[in-house]
Amino acid sequence: MIALCANSVFAIDDAELDSLYRQFQMEEVEVTARALTKDIIVPQALKGIELERLNALSVADALRYFSGIQLKDYGGVGGIKTINVRSMGSQHTAVYYNGIQLGNAQNGQVDLGRFSLDNMDEIQLYNGQKSDIFQSAREFGAAGNVYLTTRKPYFKEDERVHVRAKMRFGSFALANPSVGVDIKLIDNLSMTLDVEYVYSDGKYPFRYKRVFPSGETAYDTTAIRQNGDINAVRTELGLHHYYRTTGFWRLHAYNYYSERGIPGAIVNNVWRNGERLWDRNTFVQGQWQDEWFGRWSTRLLAKYANDFTHYKNYDERLLPADNKYLQQEVYLSLANKVQVFNWWDLSVAYDYQYNTLRKDELVSGVTDERFARHSHWLSAATAFNIKEYLRLQASVLMTQIINQKSEIKNSPKVTPGLFLSFRPYPAIDLSINAFYKQSYRYPTFNDLYYTDLGNANLRPELARQHSVELAYKITNDKSSVANDFGYEIAAAVSYYYNRVTDKIIAYPKGQQFRWTMLNLGTVKINGVDAHADMSFYLPLRFVLRTRLNYTYQTAIDVTNPSDSYYGHQIPYIPWHSGSGVLGLEWQSKRGDRYGFNYSFVYVGERYSQQENIVYNYVQPWYTHDISLYGEWQLRADQNKQPIWLKANVEINNLLGQDFEVIQNYPMPKQNVRCTVAIRY
Amino acid sequence: MHRCNKILTFVLCSLLFLGCRGDEVIYPTIGTHITDEVREGGLYVLCEGNMGSNKARLDYINLEDGEYYSNWYGAQNPTQLKELGDVGNDLVAYGNRLYAVINCSHKVEVMDAKARHIGQVDIPNCRYLAFHGDKMYVSAYVGSVADADLLGSVFEVDTASLEITREVKVGHQPDELVVVDDKLYVVNSGGYLINRYDSTMSVIDLHSFTELRKVVVGLNPTRLRVDDQKHLWVCCQGNYNQTAPQVVVLQNEAVIQRILTPCSNISIQGSTAYVIDNEQNTLNTISTIDYQLSTFDFQQSPDFENPYGLLATADALYITDAKNYVSSGVLHCFSYDGREHWCARTGDIPGHLCRVTGAYDIHGDTVPEPPTKSPYITRVYEYLPAMGQFVNELPKYEEGDDAQRMCRKCEQAIANNAGGMVSLGGWGGYITFGFDHAVENKDGRDIQILGNAFYMAGSTEYGSSEPGIVLVSCDDNKNGLPDDAWYELKGCLYDDPKTQHHVSRTYTRESDTVQNTFHQHPYYPEWIKTDEYTLTGALLPSQSVVIGGQNIQRILDFGYVDNKPNSDIEGTSFDISWAVDADGHPVSLSTIDFVRVYNAVDEILETTGELSTEVAGAIDLHCNKKLVYPTIIN
Lengths: 680, 634
Known about the structure:
The complex is a heterodimer of chains A (about 675) and B (about 625). Chain A is about 5% helix and about 60% strand. Chain A contains 5 helices and 35 strands. In chain B, a hairpin with a 2-residue loop joins strand 19 and strand 20 (about 255-260). The two termini of chain B are about 50 Å apart. Chains A and B meet through strand 11, strand 12, strand 24, strand 27 and strand 31 of A and helix 1 and strand 28 of B.
């Protein structure tokens, strides 16, 4: 519980206390607070209140504040947003929603723009894998892992119901109401319900300007983005039951429905596109976990997902398209962990998944085409602690993917992982962490079977990661210092070398929804990530918080020396990127809070295609975002459940930079969002 | 706000050592000399660019002076909003104009002979062009009104007013079209209807502009050409499965011949049809007389990755290689005896070629703004290495290469920031190169010359240093050739008593016997016809030492190429003010046009062979353009 105490040193107000309790409950029940089972390498994370302070609408926006991440953003509320961890490609990144991976067997990409922050409790990024051996087999399989954890209900004594209601308005006709209700049904059994609606017309102005080398304007035009509207409803229902002190089960149902326009690439003579997309993503997942004899832990996961996509092209200049895709997924996982000695744990897990895709494409004449895939994962892992100095974990994963209709005989692939954390001086929170890991990214249904573009002979692509990290944390407890000054600093620097072989590149081609497959071959990635979180507790109840991230990476194509792009940086990977957040908060004596937040995101120069030539050069972009917020306790009566009111005004891209993340997909200029929330 | 932006950005960027965003400058037009061969007129190359990338690009080659201009359209029309457009699909010169179909920009771009914008015709999903009289005919995958059966149209456009005059509905996804007498023929590919491709050719009466009939030609017809006997040649792609691709010949709308061969592109010249075999990635020929199919006889296999564009003219055969479709392609020029004359890097997917009579120069008065100076060298004039282990390898000598061709190979390796490397061989071997402009002698260093030197780990005193001396020259006689006086840029060892000046040495083919196990090939430059040649220059004292069993060199302070790593910009840069004449007297030069680098050391190491200066490009440090350093792979 050392880490937990450090977190809670300054937990002096209700909200912090609230999160402390939540965490307490979680830690206690889920991992029974034994050091051995904890992550030996601390992930990058953003938690509840921190998340609220950021100018972020979706999970994708929040991930910009992590180091080592590249975000692909096609612009607007409805534009696809995917991430790429340490240049290995978005399909090497697994995204977990409350512990179970979100799948997309069709294109392997998870659009993180669809996941709201409204009911998000924590976002964590693990490079390599979660360095906790008690996990499902599949979790050992990806190269980068993003864990999204939604709010868990916490009730103080005498509390039965919590309600959160939020209304957000903003530029481009953004309307985003949401309601969350937590109900304590009986002791330790509680329910959460969340409903959110998002609308935006997506009509933002954008500008294209080019100048002569002399500075004279060649052209300068401003237009309004068309067909970028979105209508989306998200509904989630959760049941949580904690029993004894060791066990719990949880059921989570999720439904997301959206209709949106795909605004498309802005090219010469084309200022409007006619593509529309309807999505319905539904899943039900359950988790049960308990512990026996104080040494044996078991976790069972199950999920059924049903995702329907309907894509239609209304652009009369193009051939009409009317395509429907239905994906289904069944997933089961059983993980066991046994503590052999206090210093030695073993775990074994087996996962099974069945995916199907049904395709109906009007114009090409494909009707009721079906694809299926069985996947098996078997993992074994072990963890050792050598005193307080060294913690070691080793895991091995066997994967077998059996694609129906594929001629390739898929022999099982075995991939190892080795993680260690060394603390030379247990009294000081300084650690040297390192890992080596192999992982495969398997071809998706689109890669294999996409009409015209698919290639049934694709091999899985292999990523080998080597990483070394130096992490340091220092805390100065405010209460023990007479001058009322305290601080908390956590910083880490890591160097990594990755090699991706047989790389499959998904390339956006005209229609955002489609990709063309490219076997880029071999990529060598060298990078340095640095991040620092600092909080300073100042006199007069001021708190100053900063978060800094910087990434330098080279990701070069080393496939074939005779290629014109041999040795060049791969597309859309900047050499430099970084972000900074600076927040100042003041708390009144009765507990009301006022704050100011500034954030800066920088993505350096990069190239839009494989060849690093002037015609493919893309300039750096950077945005400055600011926000002002206040939180007021409306009912200060100690005996009654408090009511909080929160208001927030954000200005994003404050200086109105005209930029593109992906070429020909302009991003919004300056825009504003206002949020009013009430919490009971 | 702007000022505020600047200050804030400056502070943040300098804190993070990061680059700032500047104005988006128009895409540069880059001229490269590709051949000394003189032919008539010019050649336009329309590079398609990938869908959604807006990278359709029109390049131009002046065949009379051998200059290749990438992005010629950009130079002629820098104010066109979002440039040429998205996905070029056809290019035709007709009358005194040039017409380009830009498929995903849904337009036909109309230009004068020099590719200056005249106007555009908006036609949805347009594909190919044909001309007759004062009319242009455009095939399009969709009509002006959407068709429930997904039929395409042919539009008639008045070339004077650029107005659409008539439209006729044809088959599915009509592609190429030709006019013969008073009839228009268009092939209906049905290319988007997978598993149910079209197989017809529509016959349209030009007077009534109605479809007379559909003639069945073969599955998935995409190309349609006419030979001098008015026979129609159709390339049918088949269904990429059971039905094989074929070339179909029609006479009076009746099929007279079917030739089974892959045929992604076709061009007819005289009595031969040249056909790209996109399965074997080679070129086939079909006689228009006896329909005999044979393989084109290349003197040296061109090793196409994806042959794509094709144009057979009276004096040359042009074939493009689209490579992997997402990087720049290559245009090859062959003569009909199968010999390759030259090749040039193009834009993405060079697909459409058009030979024109006009030979134009970018420096003409038509250009609204002078072209941007390239900071990189653009031209290699001379390359004469001294005998050595990398001679004939870096760059690679191939049978038939002459000195000119070796210079072109050097250009491919190191000009325009290509990122490659050239070896100068033993002592005295040299290379002469230049920029597309004269380099000014300003304060401080003027030119950076890249090599492959590196420091020994943990040291900046020792490393791999293979120093070469730099000479500069000004084109005093204005003939564009490096035949003027040369001046040495004085390096730190110039006055060293151990440095020998005015040394000369003769290399003979006879003496070419010392070969090490790694390089078993002639060390004597094979393209040199004579059996001996003499090189002159200064000889620097050896800097080699053995540390830890390794042969390394003491790094010189300043003034030599391939002596310090490229990351040390100052250490690899030269000041024109260092120039001295043959007697060592300082010379004041305001500009220079040519740079020569020669290997100034004479040493053969046991382990790695002779010390040989490598040159990996050069940069004018005063060019007001952001520099991108090439990655040198050793």
